[in-house]
Amino acid sequence: MNHLAGDLGEIRRTFRPKMANVIAGAIIGLTLLIGGISLALVLAQQDETKPLDMGDRIAKYVLLAVLGIGAPTGGIALLLRMKRLASHRVTVHADGFTFAYAGSTDTCPWSELEKIEEVFTEEQLKVLKVPGAVLKNLDRSFVLYRKDGKKFHFTVNSIDSIPRFAACLEAARDQFGIRWERVEQ
After folding, report:
1. Are residues 78 and 104 in the same domain?
2. Which pLDDT value is given to residue 55?
3. Which residues span the domain enclosing 114?
4. Helix residue spans in the chain (DSSP H)
5. In the list 8, 18, 37, 75, which could disulfide-bond 93, CB 3.0-4.6 Å?
6. Residue 34 backbone phi and psi in degrees, to 5
7. What are the phi and psi torsion angles at 89 (to 5°)?
8. How many CB atoms lie within 10 A of CB 49?
9. Considering the entire predicted model, what is its pTM?
């Protein structure tokens, strides 16, 4: 839909991703990139004290390929993802929101939203082999469905404060009569 952000009224709040997530992703990406290349070079230049048989030679070249190609490729992909995530911005206005991501901006008036889906995902991580020893986490995210079929996904990784974002969505739901569904996964 072609609406200008100025058509949406005053700005209520702007949400960006948590910078800690972006920085952590960038550090991991750089580690994969530099570490993979460095370890591959060290392994490639290593002198063999005894001749390698065919199986050991194949294993060495597979490890070289994984470290020299796979890790840096994964690192570059992660760095690009973090760059896009860092540019992510959701601005909530009185009459709608704008969503800036990867160089483009979508504008959505509240009146064009068909429904808001609040998604709760329960995650469990078993810590020990003891029954009941698990860490539980409940993630909350949102999917906003525009009447033309476009979906907007917002998670804890892309929004710095999901509870505040939820409060903005609840206010819009109440004011504009937007359908709200809760989904548990």
Report:
1. no
2. 86
3. 5-17+94-184
4. 19-45, 54-65, 71-86, 162-176
5. 8
6. -75, -45
7. -155, 135
8. 5
9. 0.73
For residue 1, is pLDDT > 70? no
- Specify the number of domains making up the chain: 2
Predicted confidence (pLDDT) per residue in 74-131, tens digit: 999 999 988 888 888 999 999 999 999 878 899 999 999 999 999 999 887 777 777 7
Which residues touch 143 (CB under 8 Å, ≥6 apart)? 116, 117, 119, 151, 152, 153, 154
Quickly count helices (H) and strands (E) in the chain.
4, 8
| Residue pair 179/111 in contact by the 8 Å Cβ criterion | no
Q: What is the pLDDT of residues 50-67, one digit of tens each?
A: 777 888 888 888 888 888
The full length of the chain comes to 185
User: Is 164 found in the same domain as 112?
Assistant: yes
Domain match, 73 and 98 both = no
Residues 73 and 103 in one domain: no
Pair (101, 156) in one structural domain: yes
What does the block give as tokens for 92? 């909530």
